[in-house]
Amino acid sequence: MVGPGRPQFVLFGSSIVQLSYCNDGWGAILSDVYARKADIVLRGYYGWNSRRALQVLDQVFPKDAAVQPSLIIVYFGGNDSMGPHSSGLGPHVPLHEYVENMRTIGEHLKSLSDTTRIIFLSCPPVNEDKVRQSSSGFFSELVRTNELCQMYSEACLKLCKEIGVPAVDLFNAIQRRPDWLNTCFTDGVHLAAEGSKVVVEEILKVLKEAEWKPSLHWKSMPTEFAEDSPYDLVAADGKTTLNPSEWTFHRAIQWD
């Protein structure tokens, strides 16, 4: 570990998480927003469902770790929601089992420490036509529909209310974007830059509205080594320096 220690934000999930540093992804954006404030740690696993997440839960989040995360953002559901394959193989997990798996994940993460905060992301929609075009010839009996996505999204949101975990309704948030079918995905499933913007907006909204102490919203967190220095850039008056620690003008989007 390098020092000094910062709050740790862990992104835990399937390919929506693993690919979150690609294509101006939401993980990369959060790393920029929280630069010098928190370390964003990626634990994403392409193709995984909630069953596989349970298998490694104690390894990824051991209860006896010396330092526990300040925030864990969890996404599973897209692969679980795929239609079952006739062979019995594949990522499909029945809805009732998916809910119980996510409940177990949520309860485990809540037990890590009194100050570990959790956000669940619900299953986003898909572009069904694009899924069929991009997967034809590669996969057998690939069933991915918005009807199924909605069922798993709603079940996740309902569970979150039951166990007291904040949730982001990605299924509806993405569909509020103009021309979302064509702008929010790279292949009909995984997020393009526009889709990732939605994820960041919704996560920051939760963090801003949460009554957590300390607050984990980026504007409320201290910036590391932010004191003034004579080594900063010299101001126009030629006598003082300008501290750039809080500058954000480099961002194309000024996040709230």
Automatic annotation (TrEMBL):
Cite the GO molecular-function annotations of the record.
hydrolase activity
What sequence ranges are listed for the domain SGNH hydrolase-type esterase?
11-197
Sorted alphabetically, which keywords does the UniProt record give? Hydrolase, Lipid degradation, Lipid metabolism
Gene3D superfamilies per the record?
Answer: SGNH hydrolase
Ranges in coiled-coil conformation: none
> Which protein family is it in?
Belongs to the 'GDSL' lipolytic enzyme family.
- Know the name of this protein? GDSL esterase/lipase CPRD49-like
